[in-house]
Task: inverse folding
């Protein structure tokens, strides 16, 4: 019924036409209208003209998202869920079962949202974006990490389009004013010389307010709404993000990592900063000098230059 109403944008559809097309009695149509209204849809009803969909709620359902998508692959197969343990877990399952390149899982809420390094990801209902994309890149597994950096460009650009001055902390945290607004968790199914699938999981704090974050994160996390002073239409943000991600993936496929590297440098909140890097329990303090041609972070310190391929970076002070 919603799809039917949504098709007639800005116009009334008569109750008679709806009941005819959907095979429902007029009373059943009315019942559906009431139920939709109770879920936040504003549906106007005029006795002589019928029903008009005046406003959709702030939801991330296929009905809200699909019409906004401007992509050739990403989100063309779309799984929208009210609640899921983790969109990454579901996307991985789907990938194992043969999901196509670009298949997307989105949820209103995660009950076991996962972050990097075994951490959890705060995922309150109806506030933020929790999205995972299945990719089937033509890349050897050694180069898969490049796509995580590609994703960070898309997330950073989407945040900038929403009007906040976002930057990237190596490898792929998106920060605003030193606080984290988005994170990316990439997982891989591969053989030594071939990637079977990749799941890029993206969490963006869109409309969370301070109280929505667990207390221990309040000093380090923020949301786009907190930063720009007004809420973000979530479906619009998700559609823009998928379009940007697809653009960057295409560019990476056509031009290789060099184009990504330059764009990453231009958005970096890390380069030139003194950093503390935790690698396998050991700690390293130095200045983040550059992103190398494989995506590793080059940190210089007294003893020389260290190439960091994985680790947790904390920004200390500007040089
Ligand atoms: C991090 O910065 O630690 C990565 C956070 C990634 C969170 C997203 S939310 C959607 C997807 N599903 C998950 O369980 N995690 C990722």
Result:
């Amino acid at each position: 019924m919603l799809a039917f109403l949504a098709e007639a944008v800005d116009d009334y559809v008569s109750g008679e036409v709806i009941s005819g097309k959907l095979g429902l009695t007029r009373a059943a149509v009315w019942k559906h209208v009431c139920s939709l209204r109770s879920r936040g849809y504003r549906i106007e009803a005029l006795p002589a003209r019928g029903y008009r969909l005046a406003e959709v709620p702030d939801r991330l359902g296929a009905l809200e998202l699909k019409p906004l998508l401007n992509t050739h692959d990403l989100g063309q197969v779309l799984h929208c869920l009210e609640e899921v343990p983790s969109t990454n877990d579901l996307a991985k399952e789907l990938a194992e079962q043969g999901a196509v390149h670009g298949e997307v899982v989105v949820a209103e809420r995660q009950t076991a949202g996962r972050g990097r390094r075994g951490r959890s990801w705060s995922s309150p209902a109806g506030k933020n974006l929790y999205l995972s994309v299945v990719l089937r890149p033509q890349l050897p597994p050694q180069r898969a990490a490049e796509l995580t950096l590609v994703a960070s460009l898309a997330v950073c650009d989407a945040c900038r389009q929403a009007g906040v001055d976002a930057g990237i902390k190596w490898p792929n945290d998106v920060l605003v004013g030193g606080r984290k607004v988005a994170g990316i968790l990439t997982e891989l199914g591969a053989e030594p010389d071939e990637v079977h699938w990749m799941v890029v999981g993206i969490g963006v704090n869109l409309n969370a307010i301070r109280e929505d974050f667990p207390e221990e994160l309040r000093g380090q996390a923020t949301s786009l709404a907190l930063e720009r002073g007004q809420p973000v239409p979530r479906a619009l943000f998700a559609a823009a993000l998928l379009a940007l991600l697809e653009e960057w993936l295409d560019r990476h496929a056509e031009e290789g990592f060099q184009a990504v590297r330059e764009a990453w440098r231009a958005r970096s909140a890390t380069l030139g900063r003194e950093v503390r890097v935790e690698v396998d329990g050991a700690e390293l303090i130095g200045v983040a000098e550059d992103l190398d041609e494989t995506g590793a972070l080059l940190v210089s310190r007294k003893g020389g230059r260290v190439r960091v391929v994985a680790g947790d970076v904390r920004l200390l002070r500007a040089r």
